[in-house]
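Technical note accompanying the year-one report. For the benefit of new consortium partners, we illustrate the data format agreed upon in the data management plan: each record pairs a sequence with a structure-token string. No post-processing was applied to the example shown here.
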Amino acid sequence: MQDHRAPDRPALKVKIGDVVTLGKKDEQTWPAFIWAVDAAGIGGWVPERYFRRIGAADAAEVVRGYDTTELSADAGSVVKVLDVDVESGWLWCRADNGAAGWVPILALEDAEAP
């Protein structure tokens, strides 16, 4: 339905057991997300429910792996939905060229199968 552009920053990829530093929440646009930074200093928006806070107020352990890669898509293009996270408002999709990443549910609409 509308263009979506991935941010120009490296994707944060965390796995179960990793420890991250949590930052601010996005209360206005994406309230389910919190900014997380890994040990290498790479940051990204991750659903807050994927963490368990430990020790210091800003430290957390990853309880569900997550990859913040976003998929750029143009209005009118077709992508295949591979995973649905309704609570967060995003879909993990694959484009015809093989690229995969998250796209906001609001940017997509169901397409009829050929």
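Partners are asked to follow this layout when depositing records. Residues 13-67 form one domain.
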